[in-house]
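We modelled the chain as a single entity of 463 amino acids. Its sequence is:
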Amino acid sequence: MSFASLEFLIFFSVVFVFVLFLQKFKNTLYKEFFLLVASYFFYGYWDWRFCFLLLFVTVAAYITALFSHKKLALAVGIIVPLVVLGFFKYFNFFLDSLETLINKDIGTLAIILPVGISFYTFQALSYVIDVKREKIPAEKIFIKLALYISFFPQLVAGPIVKASDFLPQLRKDRHITLKNVETGIQLMVFGLVKKIVIADHLSVFVDDVFNTPAAFSWISILLAVISYSIQIYFDFSGYSDIAIGCAKCFGYDFCPNFNMPYISENVTAFWRRWHISLSTWLKEYLYIPLGGNRKGKARQYINLFITMLLGGLWHGASWTFVFWGALHGGALCIDKLIPKKKKRKTIFRVLSVLGTFLFVSFTWIFFRSDSFTNAWLIIKGIFTLQDGIIQPFFWTFIAIAVVCIGTVIAIIRTKKRNEYEVNGFYPLFNLNTVLGLTILFLVCGLILGLAFTGEHPFVYFQF
């Protein structure tokens, strides 16, 4: 059940009406239990069998956290999600790699990758670790913990919500309010525009070029690479906006997951703005436990590189993802070596933003390609000025214009507010005004009139 579908609209409406009714009861467990059942229904819509896997991970986290003072329980609480993730996502990958290494056919298993497994296993891990660190107490009410791990807005593609952020909200009586609904609906509408009006249209061109790069000219390939950079941003940030808005409608708050990453002046800034929930998770639960920057410069660079290497592997069971992570890990290390100046001339800042964008776009080639061979054909086609089909795809220029206009608006708004850092999270409109309602209806009209009608699941569903 995709967010960009009629089925989800019906599902969301039914769940919203029932929750609105159930919040009349003083005991919040009625509402939370219903949301839990709805979340399992949402997850089971893809494949009901994996609901048992989700339940298993949840039960393991619940029991081990209650006994987190014992080392064995903590070890089990960490190992179980990692084993589940490793088996379903990486078992065949490592077998294939071993076959290549020893040049012998071992055989693989017919394993179906459960939707969202990378996200809910990370949330289970964060809960167990946070309890051990005494950041939060162990949750004794199973329904609350199960809802945290399986809450349907963020279940299949994030954002990765930390237990220390969400569980305290479940301990309060979070009601549906008109203000929250106004905010949530607007976020969901903006997210849908990003996904089905921009990202899905771009995907048509991107898929054509990446599937047959030898047939296209270098300029078309370059446009496809830029298009993919914008596509994946609008696709994933669009999903995150819908998830955040959906949770907001029910009275729960998720942190923003994107903050205009393509205005970053370096790779470090990029990762503070891109997939914020993942970069925060990796920093807090991997980079810092490895030693962070506390054990000297050399160790810091090693820790950064390892973190990004594993971050690349988290995205997918392929060496192209590992290499993508390695490129970003190396760039982060180099970035640490370069001294930072607080004030630089505008021209240097613009060139830094452009350089960072080009580097990130280059690395997306390995992220998008299904093999190193395909990635090499893309790179070779650009740098050899390859002849072929010239296709100036209309939606690419529309998407570039949207990014540029949004950036300018955000910068102007930042200066008016005398803020130091540009913040790209939407200025939400007052729906009690004619202007606010007009803009909302215009955006809804864009969705209805320009929506791509083909079947294109969210990019991060595969992770």
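As a brief sanity check on the tokenised model: Residues 180-266+338-462 form one domain. The chain has a mean pLDDT of 87.
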